[in-house]
Amino acid sequence: MGLDQRIDVALENLHLQQALTSVCRGFYTVREQAAAAVPDWEELRSRANAAKREVIENLPRYLDQLEAAVKARGGQVFRAVDGAAACRYIGEVMSRRNVRTVVKSKSMATEEIELNHFLEHAGVEPVETDLGEYIIQLAGEAPFHIIAPSIHKTRYDVAKLFKEKLNVDLDPNDIPGMCALARRTLREKFLNAGVGISGVNMAVAETGTVVIVENEGNARLCTSVPPVHIAVMGIEKVIPRVPDLAVFLKLLARSATGQKLSSYTSFLSGPRREGEPDGPEEFHVIFLDNGRSKIQANPRTREALYCIRCGACLNVCPVYRKIGGHAYPWVYSGPIGAILSPQIQGLDAEPKLPFASSLCGACREVCPVKIRIPELLLELRQTEVETAPQRHTWERLAFRIWAWTMQRSWAYELGGLMARWLGDSMPLGPAAVWAKTRELPKPPANSFRELWRKRGSRP
Amino acid sequence: MTRPRRVSLFATCLIDQFFPAVGMSVVRVLERCGLEVDFPEGQTCCGQPAFNSGYHPEARAVARSWLKAFASSEVVVAPSGSCVSMIRNFYPELFHDSPSELAEARALAARTYEFSEFLVNVLKLDDVGAPARPGVVTLHDSCHLLRELKLKDPARRLLAHVPDLELKEMIASTECCGFGGTFAVKFGPLSSALADDKLKEAVATGASEVVACDMSCLMHLDGRARRSGLPIRCRHLAEVLAGES
């Protein structure tokens, strides 16, 4: 299915659109309140933007620094050029330690590289331990939202899923009961897992500290109970210094869920040391490139790498609210998905994606790191029409004729006359598409300039 | 700036060709405020459709002829937040590699104003002597006006001074109506679905008219409202201020 078909499917589900709009407006409202309560919010956004710019423009240097710092604390670093390389490395750790079960905390990077598929093929059971991720894993689906992966599932959907997959009958209205079932099931998995895999929200270059924010405590269990912790980090997640955390932590939870701070914020620096009571024996950080260096190389669009995955742009996006996460071509949905996916996967994968926006700019307004998402969409549109002219033969011709006409007011006037005449009797091209779902404006007998001439320059 | 005596109207191609009554309303309001209005005949379009579709050379050619058409204008007023944003925010991008045109674009952009912005922020008028209009209206904040020109108050202040008119704010007045230029035809059903959400909130206020500062949003909303048989009409702010029935 192409983008158009997936949009059509999504538009048929009115119930989902209503639910999504109400959830997203809810997220938006709490974000607004949280932001309004911070007097220097705009200043924080500017500082976050500056810090990210500094990192992305000097990425190799910060990654070297981070690698050295992680190793100095006894951790191991693997630089994965793509998803396959990351999966291979993880597979090697599994076979070396003869691991059968892996617990995972929520991570878009591992969704991106389809780690679960890889592990299943390798005979390892991956278990998602974030409740939302657990639900979509049982359903065999991709995340519907960057921070709320299963918001498209109703309590009835979840009860049905638990019945099918876990063989337990629960009343759909007994939400605490369903949560308790997931908790019991997952607790077993935590205790028996040989490896815990997490994502990374930020990694501090000067100290080698991996920071993970979450609300369920599952990430803390994943990273501390199993004997091995592997953190998979998109290379853009490095931040320079510890004080930068004060900026990013303030922005992240507020932008995502309206919380001042998420319930759990873990700072993980290396494996368990002599005399420490807990923590993993092995601590690995995978630096995942997977196309990010390619984005970094383009100064006009690389600010897409500033993203801290808060999901705020999804919540305000009118398009996302209508079509939901599964209509997007890749795991990243919403406005950020529309600027990341084409740059990582290439425009060929879904050439229409950068055009699927009304350019309303709501995303730019809420982005905690001030990514100019609409401007990046415009850049990608230009790249698409210029690098794939074969997909735009007729449109290009139309715009050439249009531009020729618009440079000559007599031709424009003649064109307008024809458009008004045709619009009334026989709508063509864009007007015909328009008229499928909307009435066309009733064409006036005269243009404004004709009325103006008739009137004379003074009344 | 000092109060200008003469302004050039940039009617926008959409209003010129399809909504001439809105253009006449703008002229009536400006003249009522004591201004002399001229209409440079060389004007056509600002170039935004090509720019937003990725066709920069075509957009640049049209933008160049826009600059030429208004080169001698002291002040330019346009009844569209979107077109003014194109000129103010995106012409510099379009001409970034041509210093002389960039300077020209910047200078002209600095004297180009959106209609409600011009009345309230330049003329310092909240009350433009609009005739009484008994009834309830609701206001749609057009995206480019709101987020690219940061103009939320002027239209509200002007409406507040229309006798007998009640402005009832709709829920989510700042959310997009779904027009989006070529988006409206490239993704027709999605675009229309967004109009439905907007119209639902507008109708829920009990208003008989949706008012906005951009005819593109209004053409889209009005077209969808008529197709759906909704009892609400769409009016440009200028029509309300001019007293168009």
Write the layout of secondary structure elements.
The complex is a heterodimer of chains A (459) and B (245).
Chain A: H1 3-12, H2 14-36, H3 41-57, H4 59-72, E1 76-80, H5 83-97, E2 101-104, H6 108-112, H7 115-121, E3 125-128, H8 131-139, H9 155-166, H10 175-192, E4 195-198, E5 202-204, E6 209-214, H11 218-224, E7 228-234, E8 238-239, H12 242-257, E9 264-268, E10 282-288, H13 292-296, H14 312-316, H15 318-323, H16 334-345, H17 362-366, H18 373-387, H19 393-406, H20 409-425, H21 429-437, H22 448-455
Parallel strand pairs in A: 1-10, 2-3, 2-4, 4-7, 5-8, 7-10
Antiparallel strand pairs in A: 5-6, 6-9
Helix pairs in contact in A: 2-12, 3-12, 16-18
Chain B: E1 6-9, H1 13-18, H2 20-32, E2 36-38, H3 48-53, H4 56-69, E3 76-78, H5 81-94, H6 99-109, E4 112-114, H7 115-122, E5 135-139, H8 143-148, H9 153-160, E6 165-167, H10 183-186, H11 188-204, E7 209-212, H12 215-228, E8 233-236, H13 237-242
Parallel strand pairs in B: 1-2, 1-3, 3-4, 5-6, 5-7, 7-8
Helix pairs in contact in B: 5-6, 7-9, 11-12
Task: Give a verbal description of the structure.
The complex is a heterodimer of chains A (459) and B (245). By secondary structure, chain A is an alpha/beta fold. Chain A has three domains: 38-290, NagB/RpiA/CoA transferase-like (Rossmann fold, 3-Layer(aba) Sandwich), CATH 3.40.50; 294-391, Fumarate Reductase Iron-sulfur Protein, Chain B, domain 2 (Orthogonal Bundle); 393-455, no CATH class. Chain A has 22 helices and ten strands. In chain A, the strands form two sheets. In chain A, strands 1-10-7-4-2-3 form a six-stranded parallel β-sheet, with helices on both faces. In chain A, a hairpin with a 4-residue loop joins strand 5 (202-204) and strand 6. In chain A, helix 16 (334-345) packs parallel to helix 18 (373-387). Chain A is globular and about 95 Å long. The mean pLDDT of chain A is 95. With 245 residues, chain B is of the alpha/beta class. Chain B has two domains: 6-122, Rossmann fold; 135-242, Rossmann fold. Chain B is 52% helix and 12% strand. Chain B contains 13 helices and eight strands. Chain B has a four-stranded parallel β-sheet with strand order 2-1-3-4, sandwiched between helices. Chain B has a four-stranded parallel β-sheet with strand order 6-5-7-8, with helices on both faces. In chain B, helix 12 (215-228) links the parallel strand 7 and strand 8 (233-236). In chain B, helix 7 crosses helix 9. The longest helix of chain B has 17 residues, at 188-204. Chain B is globular. Chain B starts with 5 loop residues before the first strand and ends with a helix. Classes of the chains: A alpha/beta (459), B alpha/beta (245).
